[in-house]
C-alpha cells in the first residue's frame, strides 16, 4: 500500500506507533474545532495519476448525469416553515457519477477495501468501528463537475463525508461552508436564509489539492462546492462508511441517484 498512500507522512498502517496516535489526535481535534480535517498528499502522486487516467474514458461515455432542483434539506416541505420561506430557496445541482461497479481495479477501490483505512477513519472520527457499505454501486463513487456545474448548498444527511479530490478544475470547485449553522435543538432557519442570500460573514472557503483526503462533518454545517469554471473537470472520490454493517440502497434510490439499479425492486 505504500505505492498508494503516503505512509511516510500518514502511518495509518501502524496503529500502535506514536506517530499514528499523534495523527489521530490531530484529526480528532480539527474535527472538533473546524468541523473537518484534510490530509494533503494522502494519495501518492502515482496512484492519483492512475486513478484519474482510469476514470477518464468511462466518465466521458458511461457516467450518469444527475441534475436536480432542491433546497438545502432535500425535502419539499419542512414542518413549521411556509413553502416560500427564504431558507427553502431552491438551488440547482448537476454532477456526473461513476459507481463502484464501474471502478474495478481503480486505486480508490483498493483503498476503500483496505482495513487500515476504515480503522483510521473510525479512530479519527471517534467511532468504535466503521463498516464498508455493502451496496455494489454506492460504496465508492467518483463524481465529475464540469463547466458551470457543482454540488449546491445543502446539509448532509450523514454525520461525516469522506472524500479524496482527484482532479481540480482551472477555477472554482472550492468547498464553501458555514460551520455549525444549526444544532439538534435549533434549526436556525434565519441563519440558513442569510447564507443563501450571501449575507453571512462567517462563511469560509477551502481549496483542496488533488490527492488530499478530506473528512467533513456536514450534518449541521451548510456547504456547497463552488461552480466549476473552465474545461477541466473537478473529479472527487466519495467513500461511504457506516457505523453498522449491511447498509445498502433501495432500488428506487439507486435509480434516482445513478439511473439504474442492482438491488431487487
Describe the structure.
By secondary structure, this protein is α+β, with helices and mostly antiparallel strands. Helices cover 25% and strands 22% of the residues. The chain is built from 6 helices and 12 strands. The protein has helices at residues 18-34, 45-61, 107-112, 115-125, 189-196, 251-258; strands spanning 36-39, 64-70, 91-98, 131-132, 140-145, 160-167, 175-178, 204-206, 213-217, 222-225, 234-239, 241-242. It has a 7-stranded antiparallel beta sheet with strand order 1-9-6-11-5-3-2. The longest helix is centred in the N-terminal third of the chain and has 17 residues, at 18-34.
Question: What's the structural blueprint in terms of helices and strands?
Answer:
Blueprint: H1 18-34, E1 36-39, H2 45-61, E2 64-70, E3 91-98, H3 107-112, H4 115-125, E4 131-132, E5 140-145, E6 160-167, E7 175-178, H5 189-196, E8 204-206, E9 213-217, E10 222-225, E11 234-239, E12 241-242, H6 251-258
Helix pairs in contact: 1-4
What is the average of the pLDDT values? Answer: 95
Please give the number of β-strands. Answer: 12
Number of helices: 6
Q: What is the SS-derived class?
A: alpha+beta
Oligomerization category of the chains in this entry:
single chain
Q: Measure the end-to-end span.
A: 38 Å
Helix content: 25-40%
Radius of gyration: 18 Å
pLDDT < 50 stretches = none
